[in-house]
């Protein structure tokens, strides 16, 4: 039974449960809802909840586990010879899945009979052509082992699907029956429902933990696979980045890290002074009218998607810098450069620095300013000698957050900085960053058993650790050195 | 204001007699520093605003022309012996004639039309055909196959002009650049100019840019955003359907029910950390978990939607918690006092009052998700997709593109005409964002409540 219909059936069961649960509660109270422990709706909701929730949970787990089990079961059908030919077991399994999907589609469209799909063999028919007729494109001819595995895969999946429908619906029916039997005038339905809802709320809030766990685990496992194929010393200390899919790649992190830090440094050199001065001006000097116009305008910069900045770097800033600075100064002829990406990223980061600093400067109490003015300081002296020192931890936090943004930024550097990994000091040369290489190694047809693709996970983990460290450090500074004012 | 401090030495008698309005050197210096400091601040604000304006002007001026397109119209006689050799109007038979069969028909008709108009030119038949988009024969073929009775008739067709001809009327291609360009000659441009004067060629609003699917690298003039807009829309549906309920449920738990213990601390720290994780890391997560592990299809809006959901959750949770916190405790106390349970007080009283704030936060989160590119690159949304995805829910598993990724895709192509398309696509994206943000501001204004 298709998933869609299982879910529809479950919902119908739940609705039925609600109605009969409510009705039973009412009749047990003799039609007088005042005698019930809870409002009548709670009895219905209790039945519906016990019908739906366990069944849906089991269904969700089943959906994740079934493909893994089926994959394991057919894995032994594939001889080592084929695995070696294709490159890796995962790829063969992917092929098996594609052929099986193709057969399913062919049956659904009536191009193949059910029995025909089961008995099809590569000696008699050209499977690839048959599948192409129904619009399933396969890269190469289907090997007999793969076809066999695909047929086995279909059988297993079909029986597993039947079992799935049976188990889930049985569970729903059991839940319904149990809750229905328990429904009685004195049953504390509201408490039961509220406990259920509380559990759901708690579950929702653990998604954040699950996501983090997912990020770390998925990257860790692939990173370990990478380090099995490629020595970690060469990854962390290698000075060359030269991936080649024929083998013999050099995958050193240092040039990428250098590009990342260089671009981030320029971005911060642009954004920190501008953001800070803008924040000081808007907090201390600007009239209400100027502030009400300028502040939202600068904040718009934070809401613009980074791809827009990337295009801006590509079509406007890059050629501009090349024609007016790089070429006249003899520093390079490339329109994508560290400078291009750095300046554009700096523009993007201005609102991060300015908004956070603005809030922090506003939080410095007026009494400090008044005290400073009372001693005869000018406004700028007050800002420099009283307000900024008082706001410093917050400002440092803001700058660190901006730095972690800069290090993790992708689209601006993809479009603005180029793809050449090099260790150079010239800011008008094209360089590349960790994020660009993650995109580069993982887009297109990638084979997840080669170190050239797996290195992206190691890069991702490095990036994650660096930005996480910066964020935690920023939070630590803000918390530890925050001045508390009344 | 500082003169007194500067002038009052310990020995009053020694101070020279002069007006307090005359500044001494130190005061002048300090006042100049003050003025400089102020000017720096103003300059910083101006730099920020100018950068914004420059950014928008650059994109708008580059992209505005994508919404206009050059069309050529002329009569075509659909001769039977070329397009339906069997002569029985059977669509299956006629489908054997490929677009290559339609190309000479169109080229000849175009040449005849120019002759009929009496325009002198020195362009050969082959080059004439090059002035028309490669998309034209395919379009004509589709309309003939859809309606076989057209064969034998003469109808006036309107076809896209080739990318370079189109660029000429938009100022991207000039006579000088045409001399250096292998794809177009000045003679062709002169002829195009003459065609425009004769009324056979016109530039007008281009609906196809918004509704058509992407086109291959050789025909930028036919590339559209239809699939990308649909894909983005599907992903937003997924994000809305998942991120809003999960985000609100998580916020309610953390704000109203959570005890202070290790678990909730962990959750809180996690949420603030997730908000700061680089977006590309979410792409790696999606690739590893949803595609490699769970076996969901690549380039599908469902995977994109799931990844964006995880990214948007922190935004929604932070906004929702803020608006739950803004509901005064008296509301809760009153509900509890009347005998409501804690759960009832939250769901019947606090949540409805916080709803406008939650909605605003959700829209802002959606707007962020709409513009996100990097994670989508990793889950295969860069694929070239020409078919529209089916209607949801099946369509969620079909291959699709997304607006920001389409922009990236077009910037990677060699034909410079795609830069115009990319900027045009960004204008569409920005219009959506503007609309969403305006909606958020409107909701905030409309339902803003002071307690």
Automatic annotation (TrEMBL), chain A:
Q: Which PROSITE patterns match?
A: ABC_TM1
Can you say where in the cell this protein is located?
A: Cell inner membrane; Cell membrane
Question: What keyword terms does UniProt attach to this protein?
Answer: Cell inner membrane, Cell membrane, Membrane, Phosphate transport, Transmembrane, Transmembrane helix, Transport
Q: Which domain of life is it from?
A: Bacteria
UniProt-listed GO biological process terms: phosphate ion transport
Identify a single GO molecular function assigned to this protein.
Answer: phosphate transmembrane transporter activity
Gene Ontology cellular-component terms for this entry are:
plasma membrane
The ABC transmembrane type-1 domain extends over 257-474
**Does the record bear Iron in its keywords?**
no
The record, for InterPro entries, names:
MetI-like, MetI-like_sf, Phosphate_PstC, PstC_N
Q: What sections of the protein cross the membrane?
A: 6-21, 42-65, 162-181, 193-220, 256-280, 300-321, 341-365, 386-407, 453-478
Topology with regard to the membrane?
Multi-pass membrane protein
- Primary role: Part of the binding-protein-dependent transport system for phosphate; probably responsible for the translocation of the substrate across the membrane.
Q: Which family does it belong to?
A: Belongs to the binding-protein-dependent transport system permease family. CysTW subfamily.
Identify this protein by name.
Phosphate transport system permease protein
What are the top taxonomic ranks of the organism?
A: Bacteria, Pseudomonadati, Pseudomonadota, Alphaproteobacteria, Rhodobacterales
TrEMBL record, chain B:
Domain ABC transmembrane type-1, first and last residues per copy: 229-440
Where does this one sit in the cell? Cell inner membrane; Cell membrane
Q: Which GO terms describe its molecular function?
A: phosphate transmembrane transporter activity
Annotated Gene Ontology cellular components are: plasma membrane
Q: Which GO terms describe its biological process?
A: phosphate ion transmembrane transport
Query: What CDD domains does the entry give?
Result: TM_PBP2
| The UniProt record lists the keyword Translocase | no
Question: Could you tell me which Pfam families the record lists for this protein?
Answer: BPD_transp_1 (PF00528), DUF3333 (PF11812)
Q: Where is the signal peptide?
A: none
Regarding the membrane, this protein is recorded as: Multi-pass membrane protein
User: What sections of the protein cross the membrane?
Assistant: 39-60, 233-254, 274-296, 302-324, 345-367, 422-443
Is Transmembrane helix among this UniProt entry's keywords? Answer: yes
Q: Which UniProt keywords apply?
A: Cell membrane, Membrane, Transmembrane, Transmembrane helix, Transport
Sequence similarity? Belongs to the binding-protein-dependent transport system permease family. CysTW subfamily.
Protein's recorded name? Phosphate transport system permease protein PstA
Organism from which the protein derives: Roseicyclus elongatus DSM 19469
